[in-house]
Hints:
Elements: E1 2-7, H1 11-22, E2 27-30, E3 47-49, H2 65-76, H3 82-94, H4 96-101, E4 106-107, E5 120-123, H5 126-141, E6 144-146, E7 151-157, E8 160-166, E9 171-179, H6 188-195, E10 209-210, H7 219-226, E11 231-232, E12 238-244, E13 265-268, H8 289-294, E14 301-306, E15 321-323, H9 326-333, H10 337-351, E16 362-374, E17 377-378, E18 385-388, E19 391-398, H11 416-441
Helix pairs in contact: 1-5, 1-11, 2-3, 3-11, 9-10
The chain binds flavin-adenine dinucleotide (FAD).
Flavin-adenine dinucleotide is lined by residues 7-13, 30-33, 39-42, 44-48, 150-151, 180-182, 211-213, 215-217, 219-220, 253-254, 372-373, 400-401, 415-418, 421.
Amino acid sequence: MIDVLVVGGGNAALCAALMAREAGASVLLLEASPKEWRGGNSQHTRNLRCMHDAPQDVLIDAYPEEEYWQDLLKVTGGLTDEHLARLVIRASSNCRDWMRSHGVHFQPPLSGALHVARTNAFFMGGGKALVNAYFRSAERLGVQIRYDTPVASVELDGDRFVAVRTEAGERIEAKSCVLASGGFESNREWLREAWGQNERGEWPADNFLIRGTRFNQGVLLKYMIAAGADSIGDPSQGHMVAIDARAPLYDGGICTRIDCVSLGVVVNREAQRFYDEGEDFWPKRYAIWGRLVAQQPGQIAWSIIDQKAVGRFMPPVFTGTQANSLGELARKIGLDEATFVRTVQDYNAACRVGRFDHTAPFYAYPVRPGITFTYLGLKVDETAAVRFGGRPSPNLCVAGEMMAGNVLGKGYTAGVGMSIGTAFGRIAGTQAARAAKTTSKNSPETALAAAH
Length: 452
Ligand SMILES: Cc1cc2nc3c(=O)[nH]c(=O)nc-3n(C[C@H](O)[C@H](O)[C@H](O)COP(=O)(O)OP(=O)(O)OC[C@H]3O[C@@H](n4cnc5c(N)ncnc54)[C@H](O)[C@@H]3O)c2cc1C
């Protein structure tokens, strides 16, 4: 029988598989996607938020634990577990040497990227290179990997893991298991249920685009909650940004983000503004715009800029609709011309004393809510064990998006998704290897319990 079974093939799963293998366990990793789509949302990432007390290779100055914690506290509005959050923060200060040992390379941010040279370490080649490096390292170390293998259910004996059953009906036993199969952001039905119907009779989630993988259907999250695992978080909470409405339904990645919001105005389908675009400098509050657009009629809006903004933000992958007058722009994007012109004129009249000279041509980018990942997850403590009525499972752990809600009740600060997945993936792998060893020597019940 295999020692450690890992379900998922993103950052958290790979960290768990590598740690378990390094601890001497035999490891089998089951990834739902075909090989060419492996890596889940992690393949779309760019960076990791890292605590450091002094300049460190690609990181400038210092980003101490307390500042990181305060940043997290602020964005979550206190909906975070301080003990687990600090564990993630501290782990982010010393994981990069281990990451490098498995082939991950870092680089400073490119110019025009987020202003995060102090707080975030960027992966050379992005998340795709990171997952490729981890898969290579895992293969070299003898981790068995199976693609096209979505897991449908988990067989439990009380709170003890016994086996998984794949969608194809195969039963796979192991001594211990790590679940790292993401949130439910790709499951449009579940998103619909979580977001419900609004006062206009619309189902807002029908107009969401999924920024990452199509494989995070939340099958095991749903299964485990129904099986009595303790859960945490609100299903309607998650990370959501405004992305180009022309982006594909899945896997548009970062190049579909519209970064010019704070350089112009944003109007809804009724040609009205609905939030202070300049509240904070981009990208500080960029993550609020997905939710804001989700609240608008038809879940659509347009980010409008003039010629002067061109070149001051990362160019979107699709070109904007261009026009030489505001009226022409309104006609081209199908908004009421008079209302739109009045909205822009009122804004310009209010934003500074005297005359404001906007410069043609004008550009409009249509935006829709782009969901990154959901926060409903399984409740954990510092051992990453899945819990049933407060009791930790002796041999079943969880990592990554599937438990990120313990640290992220709401809100987001760039790079913390990978910090959580790396910290808990590594813990889960270590614990699962330990549980497998204990299971071999003793009765299964003593396995993870020994680690508590
Ligand atoms: C466009 C984009 C950009 C992002 N940029 C950043 C960034 O720069 N920094 C950052 O910190 N975070 C970023 N994030 C968030 C980040 O991707 C996640 O926080 C992180 O990757 C989660 O890792 P994970 O391993 O839990 O999930 P994933 O990487 O999504 O892995 C989950 C895996 O589980 C597999 N799976 C799902 N269901 C099953 C099943 N039933 N059976 C078997 N396998 C299954 C999936 O195929 C997938 O491989 C970004 C996300 C997106 C979408």
